[in-house]
Amino acid sequence: MEKELILDVKDLKVSFHTYAGEVKAVRGVSFQLHKGETLALVGESGCGKTVTSKAILRLLKEPPAEIKEESIIDFMGEDVTKMSKERLQEYKGADVAMIFQDPMTSLNPTMTVGNQITESLKIHRKEMDKEARKKEALRLLELVGIPSPESRVDQYPHQLSGGLRQRVMIAIALACDPKILIADEPTTALDVTIQAQILDLLDELKERLNTAIILITHDLGVVANFADEIQVMYAGEVMEKGTVEEIFRKAHHPYSWALLRSVPKISTDGSEHLYSLQGTPPDLIMDIHGCPFADRCDYAMKICKEQSPPRTDFSETHHCFCWLDHPDAPDVERPI
């Protein structure tokens, strides 16, 4: 049975107009998201993951940000770029919600966690009275696995641990039953055991509520047991997209190989060095000719620096933008 298509992003281009020039942060990103599916946007810092997610939610300040006219962000038949101010307010939170990277800076230190949850209920569920909102806040705290919600609901963020604060952020995001949950590096500031708990919680909520999730991360190790599909991004462009199985076992792009090689392996005896990708990403103010990864790629050919690579499809779900997949390219042995 085919899953319902919720989000269809086509040729998304986002620029920032600065004193130094136009920074082309996202350069023609396209993907689809279905109900109950988890899509991971993966890549190093500055590759356009967070800008892509904020563009979907229209959280970018315009100007200096600009979503180009040819960009299409289709949410269940509606183009988000053309929504009215009133519709956008309803869309943010009720249809799509975001869990931000650092809960300590995202939560209001002067408000109790209960009031912060009921705040969005006031906006999106006007039929609820004060008592109903308080009851719903307790239910949400319990849903995200916070112990003793009756006492926690009246506490302030500084009274909670990092893991509990992140759970509060998830409760706030879930308050209005959004169809899409965007999780921006939700485990970055947490220790390893708490990271696993938060990912397990998100996975459990996805199964229980059938919510679609966009997970933003630089760590491929995080998505191995969590995502359904992975989209590898670099310099504002998509390098490769496929299912978890396809990316981990059949990756075709040298940048995907580099990310996979930089993930520590449990089986190592400790004698081998962890792979490190040399060089730096290109300046996004400059025009990029050819593949943006060419200057850092061990397999770059002359054409890589002159022409953008075509898209090569390996299955319905797996495609890659790399000249190595061209029939005339030399055979290369995968390093992983």
Distance between the termini: 34 Å
Class per helix and strand makeup: alpha/beta
**Major sheet description:** 8 strands, mixed
Q: What's the tally of helices?
A: 11
Beta-strand residue fraction: 15-25%
**Tally of DSSP β-strands:** 13
**Tell me, what's the shape?**
globular
Mean pLDDT: 85
Record the strand order, biggest sheet.
7-8-9-3-10-11-13-12
Radius of gyration: 21 Å
Order of helices and strands: EEEHEEEHEHHHHHEHEHEEHHEE
- Helical fraction equals 25-40%
Low-confidence stretches: none
Layout of helices and strands:
Layout: E1 5-18, E2 21-34, E3 38-42, H1 49-56, E4 65-67, E5 72-75, E6 78-79, H2 85-95, E7 96-99, H3 103-106, H4 113-124, H5 130-143, H6 149-152, H7 162-174, E8 180-184, H8 192-209, E9 212-217, H9 220-223, E10 229-234, E11 237-243, H10 244-250, H11 254-261, E12 311-313, E13 319-321
Parallel strand pairs: 3-9, 3-10, 7-8, 8-9
Antiparallel strand pairs: 1-2, 1-4, 1-5, 5-6, 10-11, 11-13, 12-13
In short:
This protein is α/β, with parallel strands linked by helices. The protein is 31% helix and 23% strand.
Task: Summarize this structure as a short list of keywords or feature phrases.
336 residues, alpha/beta, five-stranded antiparallel beta sheet
